[in-house]
Structure formats: structure tokens, C-alpha cells
């Protein structure tokens, strides 16, 4: 088949997806690939499921650096042992593994008791990493990061039908939703020390009255005098990320800097450090877990601490800890 024909076939598939309705059924149990209510056939209504629950991601820290330092055979054994351990402990805590991508594993929990199951699963994974993997693989500084969020997860079946051994390899589930993205971002930061460069900028803010010169702001107010200065005499200090600072700076004359949003006075480049523990969870997960476990040691003794953070796209409170089991 010439490539032109194949590309036309693919374009027709894309048009079919655009023109076909998607319907989502509410689920309380975690959908699986052979679920009869999930469809990907062409020309019919696409069916998916939505489940409001906890999702957990776990990822090995510095896997590239570990591979460079240690023998490939050693790392292969570590990946194999750790992934198998995560699969087993996920099932123990009623979780369902729904994605394994390299050294990253995604676990979704049924709605019932999802907060407790997800947090307990995170504690178990952290315990395995620190006290089993590291004890058995000497001289390997093995660490993992774990992130948990809660909310609506939508899943659809994707892929194509193929005959033979390749059939299963060409099918899968896609999990879409804010919680999956945030849990993944938390995992990216967990068990890491992250340095952030930012800028403190002093400027005179814009005088918004200058925009309304000669106009009345309300039907009953006096007109704003003409010739209002563009900038206020007030000096404000604003904090900007490196990207925000770079995008706001302009230079109209050699040796002079200007900036959008105000009259530039001065700036100071600064750095702050975020030291994240191995387990991170959103406020929704922490609140749900706490309300169901008020008498547990990790709640009573405040093992989970609120953390300052700069997690992209997440504005809520963040909680985390380095919690493991005490085995008698």
C-alpha cells in the first residue's frame, strides 16, 4: 500500500473521531482494557467511563544517573524487582496498575476507601524502596518519588484490532483528567531538591487613571483630569519567575531597561530551594485521608506536613512526608 493511501486512511479516522459523539458512564470500580462498555470501533458512538477516585504515580529517581554509575545487569535487576514489588503491593491495597512506562507506574483505586488505600500504598512503596531494595542492592542509592491526587478520571479505549500476537499490544486505555496530570507532576518533584531562580522587581505601577483622562468613571463622578502621569509614585515589589521576568523586560535605548506593567526601578536575582519528601499528595487527598483516619498515628503525630511548592498548574495546598511502616 502506498503511503498516500495510508495517510488518507488515517485522515478519515481522525475525521471519524471528530464527528462521533463520546459518552461517559460513571464507574466506581477501575475500568480495564477488555471492559465491554469501552469501545473504539469506527462509525459508532464512542463509550468511555468516568471515575472519581485517587490516582497514584511512582517513578524511580535519577534512573539515568544510576544506569551510568552501575552495571546494566544490576539496573535491570533493580527495575525488575521494584516493578514487581509495586505491582504486588498495589494489589494488596486494592489498587489497579493501569500504566507502566519505563520506570514509571500508574495505579488507580476503586472509589470505596480510595484515600486510605492510596496513601497506604504510597507508604508501602516508600518502605519497599528504603528498606528492601536498598538493603538488598548494596551501594545503590535507590530512591523513588510518589504523587497522589483525587478527582474525575475519564478513560477511553484506544487502538486497533489486529490478528495474532500483536492484538493486545495495539490496544490500551487512555486516562484523561486533571488528577492524572497533577499526580504525575507531584511524582516529578517528590524526593528531589529543586532550586528555583526568581526575580524581585521594584517598579512604579501603572497609573490606571491616565487611561481614563477626561472621562467620568461613573455617571455621578467628576471627570478624571487630563495629563495624568502614566506611572504612580508608589513603589511596589513584585516577584517574577525567570520566564515572566524575561518576557516583561524591554530595551528601547542603549543602556536603559523598561518593562511591561510598570516603570522599572531595579531587580534582584534570587534563588530558593524546595526539598520535597518521597510522598506528595494534594490537599484533596490529605483531607479525605485525614477525615477517614483521625486516630491513626500519622495523623495524630502530624507526620504529613504542609509543603511550600511551585508545582506547575497546581495552586492548592501540598502535603508530604517520608512515612514508612514500623514492622515488629
UniProtKB/TrEMBL annotation:
Where does the Guanylate cyclase domain lie?
54-187
Q: Which PROSITE patterns match?
A: GUANYLATE_CYCLASE_2
**Origin superkingdom:** Bacteria
GO terms (molecular function) for this protein are: adenylate cyclase activity
What Gene3D superfamilies has UniProt attached to this entry? Nucleotide cyclase (3.30.70.1230)
- Which positions, given as ranges, span the membrane? none
Question: What GO biological process, any one, is recorded here?
Answer: cyclic nucleotide biosynthetic process
Give the SUPFAM superfamilies listed for this entry.
Nucleotide cyclase
What name has this protein been given in UniProt? Adenylate/guanylate cyclase domain-containing protein
- The scientific name of the source species is Sandaracinomonas limnophila
Amino acid at each position: 500500500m502506498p503511503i498516500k493511501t495510508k495517510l488518507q486512511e488515517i485522515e478519515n479516522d481522525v475525521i471519524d473521531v471528530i464527528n462521533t459523539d463520546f459518552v461517559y458512564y460513571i464507574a466506581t470500580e477501575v475500568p480495564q482494557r477488555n471492559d465491554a462498555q469501552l469501545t473504539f470501533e469506527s462509525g459508532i458512538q464512542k463509550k468511555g467511563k468516568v471515575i472519581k477516585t485517587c490516582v497514584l504515580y511512582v517513578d524511580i529517581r535519577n534512573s539515568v544517573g544510576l544506569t551510568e554509575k552501575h552495571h546494566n545487569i544490576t539496573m535491570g535487576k533493580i527495575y525488575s524487582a521494584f516493578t514487581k514489588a509495586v505491582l504486588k503491593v498495589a494489589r494488596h491495597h486494592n489498587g489497579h496498575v493501569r500504566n507502566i512506562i519505563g520506570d514509571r507506574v500508574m495505579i488507580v483505586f476503586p472509589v470505596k476507601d480510595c484515600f486510605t488505600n492510596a496513601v497506604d500504598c504510597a507508604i508501602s512503596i516508600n518502605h519497599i524502596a528504603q528498606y528492601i531494595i536498598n538493603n538488598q542492592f548494596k551501594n545503590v542509592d535507590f530512591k523513588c518519588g510518589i504523587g497522589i491526587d483525587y478527582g474525575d478520571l475519564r478513560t477511553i479505549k484506544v487502538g486497533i484490532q489486529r490478528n495474532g500476537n500483536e492484538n493486545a499490544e495495539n490496544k490500551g486505555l487512555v486516562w484523561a483528567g486533571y488528577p492524572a496530570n497533577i499526580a504525575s507532576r507531584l511524582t516529578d518533584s517528590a524526593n528531589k531538591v529543586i532550586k528555583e531562580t526568581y526575580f524581585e522587581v521594584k517598579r512604579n505601577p501603572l497609573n490606571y487613571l491616565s487611561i481614563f483622562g477626561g472621562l467620568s468613571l461613573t455617571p455621578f463622578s467628576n471627570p478624571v483630569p487630563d495629563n495624568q502621569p502614566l506611572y504612580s509614585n508608589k513603589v511596589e515589589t513584585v516577584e517574577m519567575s525567570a520566564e515572566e521576568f524575561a518576557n516583561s523586560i524591554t530595551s528601547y535605548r542603549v543602556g536603559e531597561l523598561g518593562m511591561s506593567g510598570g516603570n522599572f526601578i531595579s531587580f534582584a536575582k534570587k534563588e530558593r530551594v524546595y526539598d520535597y519528601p518521597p510522598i506528595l499528595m494534594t490537599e484533596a487527598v490529605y483531607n479525605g485521608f485525614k477525615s477517614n483516619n483521625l486516630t491513626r498515628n500519622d495523623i495524630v503525630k502530624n507526620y504529613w506536613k504542609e509543603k511550600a511548592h511551585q508545582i506547575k498548574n497546581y495552586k492548592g495546598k501540598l502535603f508530604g512526608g517520608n512515612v514508612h511502616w514500623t514492622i515488629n
